[in-house]
């Protein structure tokens, strides 16, 4: 397994357009997370899935954002009517269903998708 | 409210010396604390973690100390190497079942040869 894969790596879009990002987690990981990182900040939690169920959404996830994880495998994050404030790095992570935290390698991040809204 | 704080935006040390990165938190319900290293245009890479019931964890050149009464943790890197230059994030895991991580803003470490 090559780890968590995110596509595309970079996306430039015009304000008002819709964009979709994809995340392929580590195959045996049941949990999948989306985070957003803006300049000068740490990653901020957006949402998480356990298998195909979306179990928590941050208040940062406005109505223009939607995430899916059909069949509990890959996940997509869609942003509708993009705004300049959406420009950020969008990070995906995955972990096993039971993660003690002792072995941090169990919680693995992808390389992210850098979104620029012009 | 920022539950995990890294008050030093940057730190510069000489190669071979000790690097000490600090982190403070406010939420007593965090059960694990993790340190991540991040290069530009890459995702965070796990370095070391510590349970909230421990006060020290060591892995090679990296040691994390936790002072629960002060709600403070620190990462020590000894000896520092130029390849350690990166942004370091402190993160805390929410106790419970969702495994959400709360990150600090990061500290840019520069190790000078």
What does it look like?
The complex is a heterodimer of chains A (118) and B (113). Chain A is mostly beta strands and 118 residues long. The relative contact order of chain A is 0.32. In chain B, a hairpin with a 6-residue loop joins strand 4 and strand 5. At the A-B interface, strand 4, strand 5, strand 9 and strand 10 of A face strand 4, strand 5, strand 9 and strand 10 of B.
Furnish the topology, listing elements before pairings.
The complex is a heterodimer of chains A (118) and B (113).
Chain A: E1 5-7, E2 10-13, E3 19-24, E4 31-37, E5 44-50, E6 53-57, E7 65-68, E8 75-79, E9 88-95, E10 108-109, E11 113-117
Parallel strand pairs in A: 2-11
Antiparallel strand pairs in A: 1-3, 3-8, 4-5, 4-9, 5-6, 7-8, 9-10, 9-11
Chain B: E1 4-5, E2 10-14, E3 19-25, E4 30-38, E5 45-51, E6 56-59, E7 62-67, E8 72-77, E9 86-94, E10 101-103, E11 107-112
Parallel strand pairs in B: 2-11
Antiparallel strand pairs in B: 1-3, 3-8, 4-5, 4-9, 6-7, 7-8, 9-10, 9-11
Secondary structure class of chain A reads mainly beta
Low-confidence segments of chain A: none
User: In one word, what is the shape of chain A?
Assistant: globular
Q: Distance N terminus to C terminus of chain B?
A: 38 Å
Radius of gyration of chain A: 14 Å
Mean pLDDT of chain B: 94
Please state the average pLDDT score of chain A.
92
Estimate what percentage of residues of chain B fall within beta strands: over 45%
Q: Biggest interface, and residues per chain?
A: A-B, 32 and 28 residues
Please give the oligomerization state of what you see: heterodimer
Radius of gyration of chain B: 13 Å
Shape of chain B: globular
- Please describe the biggest sheet of chain B, giving its number of strands, its sense, and whether it closes into a barrel: 6 strands, mixed
Alpha carbon gap, first and last residue of chain A: 36 Å
């Amino acid at each position: 397994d090559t780890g968590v894969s995110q596509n595309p790596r970079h996306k430039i879009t015009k304000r008002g357009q819709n964009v979709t990002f994809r995340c392929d987690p580590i195959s045996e990981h049941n949990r999948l997370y989306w985070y957003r990182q803006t300049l000068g900040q740490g990653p901020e939690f957006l949402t998480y899935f356990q298998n195909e169920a979306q179990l928590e959404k941050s208040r940062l996830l406005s109505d223009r954002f939607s995430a899916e994880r059909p069949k509990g495998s890959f996940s997509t994050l869609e942003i509708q009517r993009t705004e300049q404030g959406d420009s950020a790095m969008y990070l995906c992570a995955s972990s096993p269903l039971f993660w003690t935290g002792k072995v941090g390698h169990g919680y693995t991040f992808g390389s992210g998708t850098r979104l620029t809204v012009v | 409210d920022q539950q995990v704080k890294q008050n030093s935006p940057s730190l510069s040390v000489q190669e071979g010396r000790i690097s000490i990165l600090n982190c403070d938190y406010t939420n007593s319900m965090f059960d694990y604390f993790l340190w991540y290293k991040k290069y530009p245009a890459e995702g965070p890479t796990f370095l070391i973690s510590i349970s909230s019931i421990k006060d020290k964890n060591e892995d090679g050149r990296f040691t994390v100390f936790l002072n629960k009464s002060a709600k403070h943790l620190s990462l020590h890197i000894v000896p520092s190497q130029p390849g350690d230059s990166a942004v370091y994030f402190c993160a805390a895991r929410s106790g419970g079942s969702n495994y959400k991580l709360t990150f600090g803003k990061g500290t840019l470490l520069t190790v000078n040869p």
